[in-house]
Amino acid sequence: xxxxxxxxxxxxxxxxxxxxxxxxxxxxxxxxxxxxxxxxxxxxxxxxxxxxxxxxxxxxxxxxxxxxxxxxxxxxxxxxxxxxxxxxxxxxxxxxxxxxxxxxxxxxxxxxxxxxxxxxxxxxxxxxxxxxxxxxxxxxxxxxxxxxxxxxxxxxxxxxxxxxxxxxxxxxxxxxxxxxxxxxxxxxxxxxxxxxxxxxxxxxxxxxxxxxxxxxxxxxxxxxxxxxxxxxxxxxxxxxxxxxxxxxxxxxxxxxxxxxxxxxxxxxxxxxxxxxxxxxxxxxxxxxxxxxxxxxxxxxxxxxxxxxxxxxxxxxxxxxxxxxxxxxxxxxxxxxxxxxxxxxxxxxxxxxxxxxxxxxxxxxxxxxxxxxxxxxxxxxx
Length: 381
What we know:
By secondary structure, the chain is an alpha+beta fold. About 60% of the residues lie in helices and about 15% in strands. A hairpin with a 3-residue loop joins strand 4 (about 125-135) and strand 5.
């Protein structure tokens, strides 16, 4: 009995020893990944961000209609209601919608819509529809969801001109999310290089760079962004305005990161591995890029994840104030222009749906950043 007891006790000890060995032999990134997986809210946020960026990459696939097309018969139409049970009480595995009829109230001139129960259209997945080029390369006409012609499907309703809000929201994700990503990358490169040079060389270089950073930080960001955006020539195309907004957001956002990188490099520039790199005749910029910046890469990744929502909010605010992205290009801020008066909100509250995408995106990035910060903290178990 004693021998059997010892055998049973040996297996958990062996498993614990294997776990301890794998823990101590794991690299820094493996330890970060282990701790990050335990943060459920961050994992859910990462999935949400992945889904949102899949929309930004393939908006034509997710869209149900041409986002520029005007459906005159359905101007200011409410979102379609999806049913599984028909009027006779029969349950259908395939969901369906009813067509809508428009009537005009001659006293208030308000458009009223009622369901036409005589016309029922089942929802179909991977349905053929408007042709488009997938990633600008592959000709296809497959869409995620839709209905058979002559039916139309408006999951988020339509605007005052009869344009599908859902399809416009899908296409707007491409501009809003890509501006956040490109602005973040540009700001990250500027902040790391300028802050790295300032912290590594010190002396007069550090003095000049820090005075420039202090000057930029002292200027209120919102008036500065608005002034730079308003300075765009009116004859600029939508593409030129897009890249102009990206540059403006990057120029305004790099100083705080540069100051943080400078402090880290002041701490690490006299470390042994830096001295070894200097003895081996390695160049100064090579030491900064290959050795110093990677030494606190986990911190920089957290900064990146928390910088993107600020970029997205700034672009949304500029477009909402009509000094950002200009029609016919669409972003979430451009779509929210239609919901900036009480009349539109009272008659068409679904025009605020693009704002929900902004909220979900910002919250997801913030939760993701919190999870990555906790995972990268060496003192947090």
